[in-house]
Protein 1
Amino acid sequence: MSPYAEAVLLQVGINVLLALGYWIAVSTGKYSFGHAAFMAIGAYAASILTLNFAWPLPVAMLVAAVVAAVAGAVIGWMALRLSLLYLAIITFIFGQLVELLFAQWDYVGGATGMIGMTGTTLTLVYSSIAVVVVYLVLLTRSRLGLAYAAIREDERAATASGLRITRIAVGAFAASAAVTGVAGALAAHQLMIITPSLFGPQQALLIILYCVLGGVQYFWGAAVGAIVLSVLPIWFEWLNDWYMIVYGLLFVVLMIVRPQGLIGRSERSGGGPLLRRLRRDGAVAVEREREPVG
Amino acid sequence: MLGQQLFNGVLLGATFALVALGFNLVVGAMDRLNFALGETAMVSAVVGAVLMETGLPFAVAFLAAIATGGLLAVIVYVASFRYVSDRFPTASILSSLGMGLVLTAVVVKVFGSDQRSVPDVLAGVDLDLGLFRVSGAQLVIIVLAALMTVGLYVFLDRTVWGTAIRGVSDDPTMVALLGVPVQRVILLTFTLSGVLAGAAGLLTGLAYHSVSPFDGFTSTLTALMVIVLGGLGSVTGGVIAALVIGVLQTLTVAYLSATLRDLIVFVLVGIVLLVRPQGLFGRNAGVLERV
Amino acid sequence: MSPLAELLRVTAVTKRFQGVEALADIDLAVQEGTVHGVVGPNGAGKTTLLNVMSGYVRPDAGRIELAGRDITRLTPQLRVPLGLVRTFQNIRLYGGLTVLENVLLGQHTRARTGLRSLWPFPTPQERALRAEAEAALELFELAPYRSRRAAELPYGLQKQLEMARAMAARPRVLLLDEPAAGMTTDGRHALVERLHELRGQGLTIVVVEHDMDVIAKVCDHVTVLNFGRTLTEGPPAVVLAGDEVRTAYLGT
């Protein structure tokens, strides 16, 4: 296999991991706006271990997963108790915080970053994907996966069924962070150089786009989205210069036309935007009168 | 010395307040976040800076900046909020994040990724008020920021359209049933938020004498921290929190170290989220208890 | 006949919303194995009372006790494993999930739902729960629709599903929020029969309802609320014939 083809497959594989990882959180209906932070945490954790302590990459990856999972659990617990708006705010702030911290931490090279990590192989990447896929298959067939779907569908009904929402959502978030951390570790050892700016809002948006383009309903939809978006810049070379603009606009169009992603069931929506808004707000107004949580 | 630092902090806080108010207006109107607001401020600042470099007076540049801000906010409204289904609350927020990145990328393409300097204003002015001194630029900033904040208060409180905005924020169904043109009010709200952001952008650029295409994220970040501290949707809370953060940042840089500046605010925000998530004056609707 | 135990007790519950007293010093005792109705005109506080009982609203004063245990501070999801289950007036089903999945979710507190549930081979406990779910579908006439999305069901069947899901949690006390709302006459008959059946099996039920007919046919005891206060209470025959109810509803 040519080194070029290998590089492409590695990149695609890492992006698929990112998409699958993000999907775990999205399957509970929770959208994080700073997921690149977990990628950074995994990348730096693994790089420290391989560069400074000569640990083998697979072990470093496991540690990266654990560290990212802990971070995910902490942030998740803080944010998932609150509304979706607060989730967006808190995860965004966290994303910026992590970028800032790494840029100011001399031990990891500050703004210059770390250099010289190697070791990502196709085997490593694709066996990681295989593990995650097995996990997701088992998850979607289990009662835990059913609980995730319930929380996504209707949280109030879920509480009425006895689901402990924060606990479940935080677990999903931590798992999501772990997978993203592993992807970060693999990316670091493939790129051979990492800087804090690699893990900023653009990367966060990319992760979301990989997942959401493919489709929120099935995890393999997210994988498809990642594959398509990874391959696109290769087929359309002119895209490279403009790719942030194109992807940003793609996002905008997607959110209008098919916010649930391309693959999967389409939601029926009736009436124009105002009518929908009135209906929704009518329901919200009624909820507010009847069931404000004290 | 302390007096000067406090004044500088208040000045900074005033600029933060404008952006935070912009965010809060949109939260009130649609229960959504416009993640492109920071970039809106940045583009307006760039426009203002470019005009000033060609020799135009500051007043013209300022008006251009707020006009740009208002216009961009409307564009973002149409692209990210107007036609996005309500069934996916996060979709608008995500879309506006995308728009923000598009704006940044466009500015980088057109103007390059370097910082632009913002020429000074009223350079000759230097007031000595005993406890602190006020330079010409600082005078302009504080006066304009104060005028806009007070103007917003008055507008929301006393005028018909302002009341309509408050009504939509409170109970959109009721207000629609009373005949208020909700969509138009929302449009107005976005325009106002853009105007505030545009002003904030140029004034911040004036304060730091430079503007960078990547300022958008910083502005958004600061505004969000202000909102967490002050309470989602609260105008008063936003102003107070903005001043607190402005003063805190300035004092930290002056008396501790520059690197701690952002960290201290992060820690404060973290504490607030743990202890009193709805902030100082937050509406309850933003905070739900779950187990 | 031995005296019935008090299963659910509401003591001196008060709730204010922005200055308005939705509930003022409400006392209510529900005996085990009985059907207790709560009636009153709109705005009387029935729904708020139900929300307080089920944990969606925290009272400003007062206590809720389940089998002697103070549950006032418990969140709704923690009341479910204790046996307190509710339905919603505007049905809250998991619209995008299938009928079977909805019922399975009702069993959540009785099943293994953590990471261990990922084990691909069903345990005997899980098999039993699944069998139970299938039986519930049969009982509530939902079996032909087991793979349909809940949102696609006609209203009457959605109501059935809501009840089936609630029962899947094996409640000791079932709180029903206007179960007869929007039902046809046939549906109402079926509801009354269903409630009789459930009571016969020993279930304790609290019904918030507008439909006096259903209340009369099903309840052992009725509490009438008006303006957040208890107007009167007693056996339905007595209460519904009395003047208080007429005054409350018609204002004369």
Protein 2
Amino acid sequence: MSKQVVDALAAKFPSAVTRTGSAHGDEIAWIKRDDLVAVATWLRDDPAMAFDSPVFCTCIDWLDYRPIGRPVSEHWNETKPRFTVCYQLRSIAKKNRIRLEVEVTEADPRLPSLAGLWPAFDWQERETFDMYGIRFDGHPDLRRIYLYEEFVGYPLRKDYPKEKRQPLVRRDDLPVNPLKAAEGKSH
Amino acid sequence: MGLELSTTRLEDAAKWAKQSKLARIPEWGRKFSLFTYPFVTACCGMEFMSVAAAKYDIARFGAEFPRFSPRQSDLLMIVGTITEKQGPALKRVYDQMAEPKWVIAFGVCASTGGFYQNYHAMPGADQVIPVDVYIPGCPPRPEQVLDALIMLMDRIQDGRGHSQLRLKRDAMIRAQEAQAGDGPGE
């Protein structure tokens, strides 16, 4: 539907766009990390693009991704970067949608923030940081948004134990007190 | 309706009169004038509204007046999921309530964590504060809530609520200490 947008983007930034694709009617452009801000600025400011509405920012953790009934995905295997950060944009004026995807590695999970371009991405990037531990360089206030400061780790990463709780407070008379049990282990 | 009070106020008064235990007057009065603090966090709140509204009418049991200050309430209704982040707030609300006080866990999430088994949901509000009556259901029917309230009223009358037992225990300990120290110790 927005194929011409992706084609224009690839023509304008041939070195920044690694590949393009389409999924369920949404056009996707994979962007190199260092060129993300330049690409996003052009998408926002060019009158023919006019992407004025940020839809969402989130992250995909591809760790151990095994699609059922199919061979190991072309999207991910052990040699590829673990995380994909997605920015979904919409142009209300031109009625276009486009998704920018940036691949970041587990060792260096950082990319430039787009909160300066679209202020609505401020809290969404904070959520992505909260849940996946992605660092957004240049973000005005990058700290946890849902979880408490005492929380250790990033719960939506696939290697976070499913039922691991990090309680803030417990009764003193519990048969098994997780707070006390944690203290006992550390000593 | 199948909703019969096991003890009406009149029968209760008669029972009390037969036993003629003056010490039971306050508990008899307390159980018919519960002031609720609705700690409403989730969808069970809709069912709480239903219980409080005219059709099921929790006012029939003397617990119709929600107080949004813990200082003015003696029944804490935990209505909905409690997250780990909310734990300190819940404990603080409970600590601020005046003694004696009672707690009802309203719905499975408040009772056991319900279907949330993950990093953020507390596996039951009783991890943080003692709970007197648990109401299962997702959400519970209003009849279940009224049933739980009647159970709690019986418990209050018998002095078996958590905070009542704790107060009795503390009083006993104080009495023993006073006896051991022969009075002028304090």
